[in-house]
């Protein structure tokens, strides 16, 4: 098999080989990354330099290896698989290597990085070079694959699976050549998956350790609190174990495994234990959805990215590959000194008419803006505004046709109810940063976070020049029929009704999409206050008839949707009975409770008989009954708007 790439590592070795570098090289990297192949190439280079070479396994380091390296100051000693005797690292550093004569060269290769005490010892400064071995570069990976005789139609899917991991490429290539066809849908079979897992991961200490590693593979980043949410027992101990694995890396956001290891663990668990996979996914999903809701404002995009990453197997629009840290763009709030730059970017991005809109909202709603800069240079390349609107004045309607059209659409469809608002997302991005790019991903995560964290938002509208249909469908939005215009440019407005499909239902739909691309979510009924009150009055009269309650529009409201797991008609009946019973908690409402209880809970056939049973004049009974019904309507309307966990409405 041809040796490809590794020019930088070869340069370090050759410098040491000819006396211009260090005397000890420490090569480390995960299994299958090419350490042994590199050592064989080092041996070839040393032989070409006419230096005596000895290559040994780690467990044979003493005494066989020492004979040549101690006898000949020109010798080159290559130690492979050092992880098998990692416990000897202190002896190697403190006793073995100091005895090696000047001029000799020692290379150590293993899965684990060197102990920090190497760097803490000033005696090793300049004498030790550490070479972390990574994936092959894209061109080198293609060269290795091509040398294996992989058919042209299989090269792209093989590279997508293996990336630059040499062992994965070689095993996948062997299977691909043997299988022949398969086209763009080729995937490694379970034999390849099992073989690679044995080579890269090996035996695990326990079932709990395996579950921890599977969680690490499924989540974008693994922190100890995420591990605790999905695997409560021994989370701290298991997290410490994960971070020491040679194929698991750390970033400021948490732990993540090598891409090939991640894909192998995912494929193996989904094939081996689909039910266990689903349980794990749901636990992680619930934890990350709650994190989106509770994260600080600055952490919202990252929290959304972590949540959406769980859906990467369902063609989620954003590309996460390689983004294991802060990224090449960052987000910040608008400052007064940024306004001039913002307007120049808006003009360059969208033209003068759009820049006028940006100037208008920057003056009126500066808190709505987020700026996106290149991390390295600080250059402003895009900005967005999230405009929360409960009402609009004439000047605002005139200043921005996009916002005006969103407002008109909401009023013509299902208008805002008391205390509700709509939101309009506006975006300005320089041409090179439009479409599928890291900065638009960051903006997208902010928009989704705004939607999932909003309180009492009825509608969201996202302005976009060229909507991606897959993006629209994936996130359950639709394009309104009319297109607003700014100057000569037409825009699309993507809309979502959060009363018809609230955040909980939206997240459930996303989860369903992971297993079923055709999954749909039933929309909730969005009633006006008058329609809602009339439905409550009718449902009270039909409280004893489950079939009649099943036909009530109330069964399709937020009130019932939040009572998951119950039959809608039964849930509605329980809710009405509870609303009547709650009136007993207020001494001023006891008379209302008695009137409602006798009339609706005891199924009294006539109101005259109900008044007689209460010992009240009929007009007094009617007054109590009417007031009680109004209180129940107000209480349930309050919960419809604010959620079923909100305190019950109480009149003053």
Distance between the termini: 84 Å
The CATH architecture of the largest domain can be given as 3-Layer(aba) Sandwich
Overall pLDDT score: 84
What is the rounded Rg?
A: 33 Å
What is the CATH homologous superfamily assignment of the largest domain?
Gcn5-related N-acetyltransferase (GNAT)
The tally of domains stands at 5
Quaternary organisation of the protein chains: single chain
Structural class: alpha/beta
Sequence of strands across the biggest β-sheet:
8-9-10-11-12-16-13
Describe the main β-sheet briefly. Answer: 7 strands, mixed
Question: Count of DSSP E strands?
Answer: 16
Helix amount: 40-55%
CATH class designation of the largest domain: Alpha Beta
* Shape verdict: elongated
CATH topology of the largest domain: Aminopeptidase
Counting H and I runs of at least 4 residues, what is the number of helices? Answer: 29
List low-pLDDT spans: 515-520
Q: How much strand? A: 5-15%
Explain this structure to me?
There is one protein chain. With 652 residues, this protein is α/β, with parallel strands linked by helices. The protein has 5 domains: 7-132, P-loop containing nucleotide triphosphate hydrolases (Rossmann fold), CATH 3.40.50.300; 138-198, no CATH class; 201-314, Arc Repressor Mutant, subunit A, CATH 1.10.10; 329-515, Aminopeptidase (3-Layer(aba) Sandwich), CATH 3.40.630.30; 529-642, no CATH class. It is 50% helix and 13% strand. It is elongated, with a radius of gyration of 33 Å.
Write a brief structural summary.
This protein is of the alpha/beta class and 652 residues long. The chain has five domains: 7-132, Rossmann fold (3-Layer(aba) Sandwich), CATH 3.40.50; 138-198, no CATH class; 201-314, Arc Repressor Mutant, subunit A; 329-515, Aminopeptidase (3-Layer(aba) Sandwich); 529-642, no CATH class. Helix 7 runs antiparallel to helix 8, helix 10 crosses helix 12 and helix 28 (607-614) crosses helix 29 (618-642).
